[in-house]
Design a protein that fits this description.
Length: 573
Amino acid sequence: MSNIPSVDELPFTVEAKYEIGQLLRSQHEIPYHSRPFMWTEEKYVGPTTREIIADWNNNKAHWLGVGIIYTGGQIPSVSDMQHRLTICFLMILALSEILEDDEPLEWISKYGTGKRLQKGPSPEENEILEKYDWKRYPNIISVFDYDLEALGNLLNKKEVANRSDSKIYAAYDAITKILRNELQDDAEKERCENLLQYLMQSVCVVRMRISDWEFVLKVFNFVNNIKVAVPSSYSVRNGLTLATGKSQSEEVHELFTAVEKMERKDYEQNVHTLMNLFAKRIIPEKEYPQAIDKEISKFTGNHLAAFKENFEKLKKILDTVENNRFGKILATMSSGHEVMTLCVIPIAFVLFNKGQHDKLEKLLRQLVSYAIRKGKITFNALKYQTYLHDLMGKILSERLDIDAGLKQLNEYLITWLENDKNDVRFIEKVSTESYKGRFFTYRARPMLLFHTEIKDSLESRLDHSATDIDHIFPKNPSTNDVLEDMELKHKIGNFTPFISQNKDDVKGNKSLGNKSFKNKIEFYYRSNIAMTRDLVDRYKNTDFKDQQIKERSHELAKDFARITAKELGLGVS
């Protein structure tokens, strides 16, 4: 029989009452498997600060919970406790400012200029000091650059223009305000000094020092002393870090930093999408926090490469859709992230894996056609998601051929059109609808750009960013230029695509302003858009007023009915 292992073999030691001041006096790292400073004033910063002050006022020592420290690196790493430790760091900074005394700063930093001047910095530290023009280097060293920068700037009293990158700035402001309210009288210098000593000597934690790196991550996943909900993205990142091992922890950090830095994208949603691609199914949002634990348990050391590959594919998909002419129109007419995450991304992922990139544009045209018929496109209702979760899961896992999946999606779209399948009803709606305000921007403009892209033989690719929609009969006409029904100026027939800025010898929409139709004819005729040139050919001998707007609205509505019916396979009534 094998020997029964002793609990003494577990790779940690515990010190039950360890002064927070001892931790602050030496350097500690906030490591890759942790997270940026995320506490807000209302939920955490304010309550934690006030609890410390309350115990100080009551002459009681304060316990901050359990702190998990990894001791196997060059300097100790704070695996769990960074927010509480940072709060105490910021309280000392604020009290130093209130007292106008820099000596306390030497307790929580290196390379100060006071009594405790220490030996010079390492080359790496010196590079940071020179980069930010600091004299002191904070003892809390975060791997998240913006948090390290915030702590150092506050420590060195540096004014910065943009304080939004790190939540540490807001936390410091909140703590300073709380302390000034508590210590209102300038004569209370003695109380300030007493509170400083209290922070260093009477605030303690249970210090759990762990020498085994993998054991740290296991403990981190179980210990959450103050019941702060850890975002799912951090659970995924930590799970991947644990599975791949310490040697690849920096690569995991770099991957998730890259995901976080994707422009104009939602970090949590993109991590969710990466998990969908990994799981080969759509994990419903309401099940996500629980479901990812099961998926994380499947991680192995080989999965970092798969995540990196999927991330590159995700970037390519998002860039392709964002730069596609129909993708741009779809983005304007979409509401919510579900159109992309529950439809476009899963299908594009499979299409790109199979080298069938050309089929993506057809999908985008179909989705835009659906949006035009419905007025907008959104899949955030349960009636859509139930079907899409099942369909996209079959497509991602290749239980359903991609062509069959695209056919099934098209059938769903047709079913979801309901009454908007009817051409007569649709034509009546489009020709009589008023496109004011946001309806002009999010309905009329993308519809006309879609019409142009489908029907026009353009000499060059249409630049959507430089193309505006002009009111043919002016939006704000002169007092002598009126319609019998002034609401007609907001109908679809009164709009035409046109360049927004002056170009060569063509005046743009901004310059044409509120000129009458006859005064715009020569500029319309030079347009590279057939719809706008045809407008001149057909109506140049008219004033383009009530009758012409009604007539053109009806004809455009019929055009939209034919185009969308063809794209969706409806046929024309």
